[in-house]
Amino acid sequence: MSRRFDVLVAAAWFVALAIENVTVRHERGPLVLNLLVIAAMTVPAIWRRRHPLAYTVAVLAAATVLVSALTRDGTNLAPIYVLTFPTYTVARHRPLGPALLGLALVVGWACAVSAAGGESAGNYLGTAVTCAVAWGVGRALRTWGTLADELDRKARRIDAERESRARLAVADERTRIARELHTVIASRVSAMVVQAEAAELLLDDDLARADQAMAAVEATGREALSDMRRMLGVLRHAGEAPELAPQPGVGQIHALVERARAEWDGIELSVEGEPGPLPASVDLGLYRILEDALATAAVTGGEARVELRFDESDVELVAAVSGAASPPPWPTLAMRERVAVCGGAIRTETGHDGSRRLVTRLPRAFEAVFA
Predict the structure, then answer these.
(1) CB neighbours (10 Å) of residue 196?
(2) For residue 318, pLDDT beyond 90
(3) Of 37, 77, 165, 315, whose CB is crowded by the most CB atoms within 10 A?
(4) Distance from first CA to last CA of the chain, Å, rounded?
Protein backbone atom coordinates (compact mmCIF):
# COMPACT_ATOMS: atom_id res chain seq x y z
CA MET A 1 0.00 0.00 0.00
CA SER A 2 2.76 2.48 0.93
CA ARG A 3 4.72 1.60 -2.24
CA ARG A 4 1.68 2.34 -4.41
CA PHE A 5 1.17 5.64 -2.58
CA ASP A 6 4.81 6.63 -3.18
CA VAL A 7 4.44 5.86 -6.90
CA LEU A 8 1.43 8.19 -7.03
CA VAL A 9 3.32 10.88 -5.11
CA ALA A 10 6.31 10.64 -7.45
CA ALA A 11 4.02 10.84 -10.49
CA ALA A 12 2.15 13.84 -9.07
CA TRP A 13 5.37 15.74 -8.36
CA PHE A 14 6.73 14.92 -11.82
CA VAL A 15 3.58 16.18 -13.54
CA ALA A 16 3.48 19.36 -11.42
CA LEU A 17 7.17 20.21 -11.95
CA ALA A 18 7.01 19.34 -15.65
CA ILE A 19 4.02 21.63 -16.23
CA GLU A 20 5.76 24.44 -14.37
CA ASN A 21 8.97 23.89 -16.36
CA VAL A 22 7.14 23.91 -19.68
CA THR A 23 5.27 27.13 -18.90
CA VAL A 24 8.16 29.06 -17.32
CA ARG A 25 9.62 31.90 -19.36
CA HIS A 26 13.19 31.47 -18.18
CA GLU A 27 13.70 27.95 -19.50
CA ARG A 28 17.20 27.08 -20.63
CA GLY A 29 18.35 24.01 -22.44
CA PRO A 30 16.30 21.47 -24.38
CA LEU A 31 12.87 20.63 -22.97
CA VAL A 32 13.62 16.92 -23.08
CA LEU A 33 16.73 17.42 -20.97
CA ASN A 34 14.73 19.47 -18.45
CA LEU A 35 12.14 16.71 -18.19
CA LEU A 36 14.82 14.06 -17.73
CA VAL A 37 16.35 16.01 -14.84
CA ILE A 38 12.91 16.51 -13.30
CA ALA A 39 12.35 12.75 -13.58
CA ALA A 40 15.67 12.20 -11.82
CA MET A 41 14.40 14.43 -9.00
CA THR A 42 10.99 12.82 -8.59
CA VAL A 43 11.23 9.13 -9.56
CA PRO A 44 13.52 8.24 -6.57
CA ALA A 45 10.58 9.18 -4.32
CA ILE A 46 9.27 5.67 -5.02
CA TRP A 47 12.07 4.27 -2.80
CA ARG A 48 12.23 7.15 -0.31
CA ARG A 49 10.97 5.09 2.65
CA ARG A 50 13.64 2.39 2.28
CA HIS A 51 16.56 4.73 1.43
CA PRO A 52 15.76 8.25 2.67
CA LEU A 53 19.35 9.55 2.63
CA ALA A 54 20.05 8.15 -0.84
CA TYR A 55 16.80 9.73 -2.04
CA THR A 56 17.83 13.08 -0.55
CA VAL A 57 21.25 12.97 -2.25
CA ALA A 58 19.65 12.06 -5.60
CA VAL A 59 17.21 14.98 -5.38
CA LEU A 60 19.96 17.45 -4.47
CA ALA A 61 22.20 16.21 -7.28
CA ALA A 62 19.43 16.51 -9.90
CA ALA A 63 18.37 19.91 -8.53
CA THR A 64 21.96 21.12 -8.82
CA VAL A 65 21.98 20.27 -12.52
CA LEU A 66 18.59 21.94 -12.97
CA VAL A 67 19.47 25.27 -11.34
CA SER A 68 23.05 25.48 -12.64
CA ALA A 69 22.71 24.38 -16.25
CA LEU A 70 19.02 24.44 -17.11
CA THR A 71 16.08 26.34 -15.58
CA ARG A 72 16.91 28.44 -12.54
CA ASP A 73 14.54 31.40 -12.33
CA GLY A 74 10.76 31.61 -12.48
CA THR A 75 10.01 28.31 -10.71
CA ASN A 76 8.20 28.02 -7.39
CA LEU A 77 7.34 24.36 -7.02
CA ALA A 78 10.86 23.05 -7.59
CA PRO A 79 12.40 24.88 -4.59
CA ILE A 80 9.46 23.84 -2.39
CA TYR A 81 9.89 20.21 -3.42
CA VAL A 82 13.67 20.20 -2.87
CA LEU A 83 13.56 21.97 0.50
CA THR A 84 10.59 20.18 2.07
CA PHE A 85 9.98 16.69 0.70
CA PRO A 86 13.47 15.16 1.15
CA THR A 87 13.81 16.88 4.53
CA TYR A 88 10.47 15.53 5.70
CA THR A 89 11.25 12.05 4.36
CA VAL A 90 14.61 11.66 6.07
CA ALA A 91 13.16 12.96 9.37
CA ARG A 92 10.14 10.68 9.15
CA HIS A 93 11.88 7.44 8.25
CA ARG A 94 15.35 7.58 9.84
CA PRO A 95 16.69 7.81 13.43
CA LEU A 96 17.80 11.14 14.85
CA GLY A 97 21.43 11.01 13.67
CA PRO A 98 20.77 10.31 9.96
CA ALA A 99 17.78 12.69 10.11
CA LEU A 100 20.03 15.55 11.27
CA LEU A 101 22.51 14.67 8.53
CA GLY A 102 19.76 14.87 5.92
CA LEU A 103 18.64 18.25 7.27
CA ALA A 104 22.22 19.55 7.14
CA LEU A 105 22.60 18.38 3.52
CA VAL A 106 19.45 20.16 2.36
CA VAL A 107 20.14 23.38 4.29
CA GLY A 108 23.76 23.40 3.15
CA TRP A 109 22.74 22.87 -0.48
CA ALA A 110 20.12 25.64 -0.29
CA CYS A 111 22.60 28.09 1.26
CA ALA A 112 25.17 27.28 -1.41
CA VAL A 113 22.65 27.89 -4.19
CA SER A 114 21.54 31.15 -2.55
CA ALA A 115 25.12 32.31 -2.21
CA ALA A 116 25.87 31.49 -5.86
CA GLY A 117 22.84 33.52 -6.93
CA GLY A 118 23.77 36.50 -4.77
CA GLU A 119 20.52 36.41 -2.80
CA SER A 120 19.89 38.45 0.36
CA ALA A 121 20.30 37.25 3.93
CA GLY A 122 16.51 37.05 4.32
CA ASN A 123 16.42 34.20 1.85
CA TYR A 124 18.84 32.24 4.01
CA LEU A 125 16.52 32.63 7.01
CA GLY A 126 13.45 31.69 4.99
CA THR A 127 15.22 28.61 3.64
CA ALA A 128 16.28 27.49 7.12
CA VAL A 129 12.77 27.98 8.54
CA THR A 130 11.17 26.05 5.67
CA CYS A 131 13.54 23.13 6.11
CA ALA A 132 13.15 23.18 9.90
CA VAL A 133 9.35 23.09 9.68
CA ALA A 134 9.38 20.15 7.23
CA TRP A 135 11.94 18.32 9.38
CA GLY A 136 9.93 18.99 12.56
CA VAL A 137 6.75 17.65 10.99
CA GLY A 138 8.59 14.49 9.94
CA ARG A 139 10.02 13.91 13.42
CA ALA A 140 6.64 14.50 15.06
CA LEU A 141 4.95 11.97 12.79
CA ARG A 142 7.77 9.47 13.40
CA THR A 143 7.38 9.84 17.16
CA TRP A 144 3.61 9.47 16.91
CA GLY A 145 3.96 6.40 14.67
CA THR A 146 6.48 4.78 17.02
CA LEU A 147 4.19 5.41 19.99
CA ALA A 148 1.19 4.02 18.12
CA ASP A 149 3.13 0.89 17.14
CA GLU A 150 4.27 0.37 20.73
CA LEU A 151 0.76 0.79 22.08
CA ASP A 152 -0.57 -1.62 19.47
CA ARG A 153 2.13 -4.17 20.32
CA LYS A 154 1.37 -3.92 24.04
CA ALA A 155 -2.36 -4.22 23.40
CA ARG A 156 -1.82 -7.39 21.36
CA ARG A 157 0.46 -8.76 24.07
CA ILE A 158 -2.12 -8.04 26.77
CA ASP A 159 -4.85 -9.75 24.74
CA ALA A 160 -2.64 -12.76 24.09
CA GLU A 161 -1.63 -13.03 27.74
CA ARG A 162 -5.23 -12.69 28.89
CA GLU A 163 -6.05 -15.74 26.81
CA SER A 164 -2.89 -17.45 28.04
CA ARG A 165 -3.85 -16.79 31.64
CA ALA A 166 -7.25 -18.34 31.07
CA ARG A 167 -5.70 -21.43 29.48
CA LEU A 168 -3.20 -21.83 32.29
CA ALA A 169 -5.97 -21.48 34.85
CA VAL A 170 -7.87 -24.26 33.08
CA ALA A 171 -4.75 -26.43 33.10
CA ASP A 172 -4.17 -25.81 36.80
CA GLU A 173 -7.77 -26.59 37.72
CA ARG A 174 -7.90 -29.78 35.69
CA THR A 175 -4.61 -30.98 37.12
CA ARG A 176 -5.71 -30.27 40.69
CA ILE A 177 -9.01 -32.10 40.19
CA ALA A 178 -7.21 -35.04 38.61
CA ARG A 179 -4.94 -35.29 41.67
CA GLU A 180 -7.87 -35.15 44.07
CA LEU A 181 -9.75 -37.75 42.05
CA HIS A 182 -6.74 -40.03 42.13
CA THR A 183 -6.34 -39.70 45.90
CA VAL A 184 -10.02 -40.16 46.73
CA ILE A 185 -10.79 -42.92 44.25
CA ALA A 186 -7.58 -44.80 45.06
CA SER A 187 -8.51 -44.74 48.76
CA ARG A 188 -12.07 -45.91 48.09
CA VAL A 189 -11.01 -48.63 45.68
CA SER A 190 -8.38 -49.88 48.13
CA ALA A 191 -11.07 -50.14 50.81
CA MET A 192 -13.37 -51.97 48.39
CA VAL A 193 -10.61 -54.49 47.57
CA VAL A 194 -9.97 -55.18 51.26
CA GLN A 195 -13.67 -55.58 51.97
CA ALA A 196 -14.19 -57.85 48.95
CA GLU A 197 -11.29 -60.07 50.07
CA ALA A 198 -12.81 -60.28 53.54
CA ALA A 199 -16.19 -61.20 52.10
CA GLU A 200 -14.59 -63.96 50.03
CA LEU A 201 -12.98 -65.46 53.12
CA LEU A 202 -16.30 -65.41 55.02
CA LEU A 203 -18.41 -67.02 52.30
CA ASP A 204 -17.90 -70.55 53.63
CA ASP A 205 -18.03 -69.83 57.37
CA ASP A 206 -20.31 -66.85 58.01
CA LEU A 207 -22.70 -65.79 55.26
CA ALA A 208 -24.19 -63.00 57.38
CA ARG A 209 -20.84 -61.31 57.89
CA ALA A 210 -19.99 -61.90 54.22
CA ASP A 211 -23.20 -60.08 53.28
CA GLN A 212 -22.22 -57.23 55.58
CA ALA A 213 -18.80 -57.01 53.89
CA MET A 214 -20.39 -56.92 50.44
CA ALA A 215 -22.81 -54.24 51.64
CA ALA A 216 -19.78 -52.23 52.82
CA VAL A 217 -18.24 -52.64 49.36
CA GLU A 218 -21.43 -51.30 47.82
CA ALA A 219 -21.56 -48.34 50.24
CA THR A 220 -17.94 -47.49 49.67
CA GLY A 221 -18.46 -47.57 45.89
CA ARG A 222 -21.44 -45.25 46.20
CA GLU A 223 -19.42 -42.85 48.37
CA ALA A 224 -16.63 -42.84 45.77
CA LEU A 225 -19.12 -42.02 43.02
CA SER A 226 -20.66 -39.26 45.17
CA ASP A 227 -17.23 -37.72 45.85
CA MET A 228 -16.43 -37.83 42.15
CA ARG A 229 -19.67 -36.05 41.25
CA ARG A 230 -19.05 -33.32 43.85
CA MET A 231 -15.51 -32.65 42.61
CA LEU A 232 -16.54 -32.62 38.97
CA GLY A 233 -19.23 -30.13 39.93
CA VAL A 234 -16.49 -27.61 40.64
CA LEU A 235 -16.05 -27.32 36.86
CA ARG A 236 -19.63 -26.10 36.54
CA HIS A 237 -20.19 -23.96 39.66
CA ALA A 238 -18.35 -20.79 40.63
CA GLY A 239 -17.71 -19.54 44.14
CA GLU A 240 -15.01 -21.94 45.25
CA ALA A 241 -12.71 -20.34 47.83
CA PRO A 242 -9.23 -19.75 46.37
CA GLU A 243 -6.26 -21.61 47.77
CA LEU A 244 -4.11 -19.34 49.91
CA ALA A 245 -0.84 -20.91 48.77
CA PRO A 246 -1.22 -22.69 45.42
CA GLN A 247 1.37 -25.28 44.57
CA PRO A 248 3.78 -24.29 41.78
CA GLY A 249 2.71 -25.53 38.36
CA VAL A 250 1.69 -24.36 34.90
CA GLY A 251 -1.25 -22.52 36.45
CA GLN A 252 1.22 -20.18 38.20
CA ILE A 253 3.47 -19.55 35.18
CA HIS A 254 1.70 -16.28 34.40
CA ALA A 255 2.25 -15.09 37.98
CA LEU A 256 5.89 -16.17 37.69
CA VAL A 257 6.34 -14.08 34.54
CA GLU A 258 4.62 -11.10 36.17
CA ARG A 259 7.01 -11.28 39.13
CA ALA A 260 9.98 -11.48 36.76
CA ARG A 261 8.75 -8.36 34.92
CA ALA A 262 9.12 -6.36 38.12
CA GLU A 263 12.89 -6.48 37.56
CA TRP A 264 13.04 -7.35 33.84
CA ASP A 265 10.37 -5.70 31.71
CA GLY A 266 11.20 -7.25 28.33
CA ILE A 267 9.36 -10.59 28.76
CA GLU A 268 6.52 -11.92 26.61
CA LEU A 269 4.40 -15.02 27.25
CA SER A 270 2.27 -17.05 24.84
CA VAL A 271 0.37 -20.32 25.27
CA GLU A 272 -0.74 -22.62 22.45
CA GLY A 273 -2.80 -25.77 22.43
CA GLU A 274 -5.40 -27.25 24.75
CA PRO A 275 -4.28 -27.62 28.36
CA GLY A 276 -5.26 -30.75 30.24
CA PRO A 277 -4.31 -32.80 33.29
CA LEU A 278 -0.56 -33.12 33.75
CA PRO A 279 1.47 -35.50 35.88
CA ALA A 280 2.51 -33.85 39.12
CA SER A 281 6.22 -34.15 38.27
CA VAL A 282 5.69 -32.57 34.83
CA ASP A 283 3.45 -29.81 36.19
CA LEU A 284 5.98 -28.83 38.85
CA GLY A 285 8.96 -29.44 36.53
CA LEU A 286 7.74 -26.96 33.90
CA TYR A 287 7.34 -24.27 36.53
CA ARG A 288 10.75 -24.86 38.12
CA ILE A 289 12.57 -25.03 34.78
CA LEU A 290 11.08 -21.72 33.66
CA GLU A 291 11.79 -20.18 37.06
CA ASP A 292 15.44 -21.23 36.77
CA ALA A 293 15.63 -20.02 33.15
CA LEU A 294 14.29 -16.55 33.97
CA ALA A 295 16.54 -16.23 37.02
CA THR A 296 19.71 -17.09 35.10
CA ALA A 297 18.78 -15.05 32.00
CA ALA A 298 17.87 -11.90 33.95
CA VAL A 299 21.55 -11.36 34.69
CA THR A 300 22.41 -11.19 30.99
CA GLY A 301 19.63 -8.71 30.09
CA GLY A 302 18.02 -8.41 26.67
CA GLU A 303 14.47 -9.35 25.73
CA ALA A 304 12.85 -12.70 26.54
CA ARG A 305 9.95 -14.65 25.10
CA VAL A 306 8.32 -17.64 26.78
CA GLU A 307 6.23 -20.08 24.72
CA LEU A 308 4.20 -22.95 26.21
CA ARG A 309 2.72 -25.45 23.76
CA PHE A 310 0.38 -28.29 24.71
CA ASP A 311 0.47 -31.18 22.23
CA GLU A 312 -1.40 -34.48 22.46
CA SER A 313 1.51 -36.37 23.98
CA ASP A 314 4.04 -33.72 25.03
CA VAL A 315 4.32 -30.27 26.53
CA GLU A 316 6.97 -27.98 25.04
CA LEU A 317 8.43 -25.04 26.95
CA VAL A 318 10.57 -22.58 24.97
CA ALA A 319 12.47 -19.73 26.60
CA ALA A 320 14.26 -17.42 24.15
CA VAL A 321 16.54 -14.46 24.93
CA SER A 322 17.70 -11.94 22.32
CA GLY A 323 19.95 -8.89 22.61
CA ALA A 324 21.69 -10.21 25.72
CA ALA A 325 25.19 -9.14 26.70
CA SER A 326 26.17 -12.82 26.95
CA PRO A 327 24.30 -16.11 26.38
CA PRO A 328 22.49 -17.50 29.45
CA PRO A 329 24.11 -20.58 31.09
CA TRP A 330 21.45 -23.00 29.85
CA PRO A 331 20.69 -25.76 30.66
CA THR A 332 21.59 -25.72 34.33
CA LEU A 333 22.12 -28.85 36.42
CA ALA A 334 18.75 -28.39 38.11
CA MET A 335 17.04 -28.24 34.70
CA ARG A 336 18.69 -31.44 33.51
CA GLU A 337 17.78 -33.25 36.73
CA ARG A 338 14.11 -32.29 36.50
CA VAL A 339 13.94 -33.30 32.84
CA ALA A 340 15.55 -36.64 33.64
CA VAL A 341 13.02 -37.30 36.42
CA CYS A 342 10.13 -36.59 34.01
CA GLY A 343 11.63 -38.63 31.17
CA GLY A 344 11.77 -35.64 28.83
CA ALA A 345 14.38 -33.88 26.71
CA ILE A 346 16.10 -30.49 26.91
CA ARG A 347 18.38 -28.69 24.47
CA THR A 348 19.65 -25.24 23.51
CA GLU A 349 19.69 -23.78 20.03
CA THR A 350 20.14 -20.52 18.15
CA GLY A 351 17.00 -19.00 16.63
CA HIS A 352 16.68 -17.47 13.18
CA ASP A 353 16.91 -13.99 14.74
CA GLY A 354 20.10 -14.88 16.62
CA SER A 355 18.31 -15.44 19.93
CA ARG A 356 19.41 -18.10 22.43
CA ARG A 357 16.62 -20.67 22.87
CA LEU A 358 16.06 -23.25 25.60
CA VAL A 359 13.68 -25.96 24.37
CA THR A 360 12.21 -28.40 26.90
CA ARG A 361 9.82 -31.25 26.02
CA LEU A 362 8.13 -33.28 28.75
CA PRO A 363 5.59 -36.10 28.34
CA ARG A 364 2.06 -35.42 29.48
CA ALA A 365 1.24 -39.11 29.97
CA PHE A 366 -0.92 -39.24 33.09
CA GLU A 367 0.65 -42.50 34.33
CA ALA A 368 3.48 -40.44 35.82
CA VAL A 369 1.10 -39.20 38.49
CA PHE A 370 0.80 -42.67 39.97
CA ALA A 371 4.53 -43.40 40.02
Answers:
(1) 15
(2) yes
(3) 315
(4) 59
Residues 6+ apart with CB under 8 A from 242: none
| CA separation for the pair 203, 207 (Å, rounded) | 5
User: Measuring CA to CA, which residue among 344, 356, 159 is closest to residue 270?
Assistant: 159
pTM tops 0.85: no
Asked if 252 and 291 touch (Cβ cutoff 8 Å), the reply is no
Query: If you write DSSP's letter for every residue of 4-25 in order, what string do you get?
Result: HHHHHHHHHHHHHHHHHHHH-T
Say if strands 345-350 and 356-363 run parallel, antiparallel, or are unpaired: antiparallel
Q: Residues 313, 273: contact at Cβ < 8 Å?
A: no
Task: List phi, psi (to 5°) of 307.
Answer: -125, 130
Residue 278, burial from CB neighbour count under 10 angstroms (0-12, 13-18, 19+): buried
Q: Calculate the dihedral angle through the C-alpha atoms of 11, 17, 20, 25, rounding to the nearest 10 degrees.
A: -140
Distance of CA 298 to CAs 158, 258, 264, 303, 328, Å? Answer: 22, 13, 7, 9, 9
- pLDDT band for position 103 (cuts 50, 70, 90): very high
